[in-house]
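Sample entry (442 residues):
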Amino acid sequence: MSECCRFTRHDRHLVNPHKNIGIVAAHSWRIHAIFILLLLSLVALFYSRALLSITMFGLFAVTVFHRHVGEQLKNFTRNPLLLGMSFLFLIPFISGLWSADQEEWLNVMRVKLPLLLTPIVFACRWRLSEQKWRYVGFLFIVLTVIATGWSLLQYLRDMEEVHEGYLRSKIIRTPLDNDHIRFSWMVSMAILLCLLFIHIVPAKLTRWLMGAAALWLAAYLHILSARTGLLTFYMVVIIYSLWLLFTNRHRKLAAAGIVLLVLLPLLAWMVLPTFRNRIRYMLYDISHVRAQTYLPGSNDGNRIMSLRAGWNILAEHPFGVGAGDVKGEAYRWYDRNIPGILQSDKIEPSSEWLIYGDAAGWPAVLLFTIIMLIPLLLKNIRHRVFWIALNITAAFSFLFDIGLEGQYGVFLYVLLVAWWWKWFTDEPGDGYFPASSSSYTP
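Predicted structure, serialized as tokens:
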């Protein structure tokens, strides 16, 4: 029986459940499978790359293998958000036509495949109940809190060594294979989700628990002192405070948020050695950047060099070099322009805008910008301020980072955006797999 098809509110009066047309009950095995696979994918994020891939392909199989998949694909091509996300796969895919290094191109495509498959999964007109969506959100927060606790245990085991490491661009170990950039952004999104639950969940105990979780995660971000996580956290606080202020809701809370923007960095500087040493290293690193001197193992210096490399590739190749050749072209630029550079300091251009531009030229830069803007222009999105904060922080992280070049970054971006879109849009058939029309027969 097809369970992933189009249904409009105008068709509801035509549905006759006694003739097996129109609606499949909410206890459909596919609904249960999707819910379980979503939960498993969050667990797999912290446990196993292989299991993460398996759960994502499982979601694809459950939602795509049915008789009326053509209707689902039509929904996909008509949805600007999902179609735009798929172009994050299609742009480098097409660039393979002029990419010389086909092996590297295939590696890039393998990593980016969820950017094509996951939007198709969410184009299917399945719905979870509000309760199930909240369970997914609660699990995300709980797992993030546990993960931050594990990270802090690594810190407590040898605090002096960690403090000294922060003066050499080394920070506390984190989950996601020590990918502190993606992990810190995820923590800031968990804080955003806590704020959402504080507003939509009526139970006082739950709201208090969400508030406590948000404070814990905010404290962790300052201890970790990864800039992506801190900057996106402050962006969340600013957006949330402005929303409270201009919608005449809890103006005292809005004022408290604005005060936090000033007090938290000052308190972190006075109390947290990791935060203080991180700032000191950044200032030392920036001094070398300003002097235009190469500092082996530099953080900011390597990023600036990579941006220069990416910009030069784009300037010399306005239609790109192909996704498989971006890394090789960047490495050749290093060899020509940075004498004595260590192999470990050669990195890809640290901006997704440049990565896509270097692969497919200025048209790709323009298209990437449009894709980042599409979520902000969507209408009929509930909890709009939280949706906007999610997408603004994601786009900001891509400006100075390459989150879409690794499995964890791809998964976090595509799942969070698709999940929140599905949750926040009022599609018909909540809790069901509706059929395409009254004439449908299973």
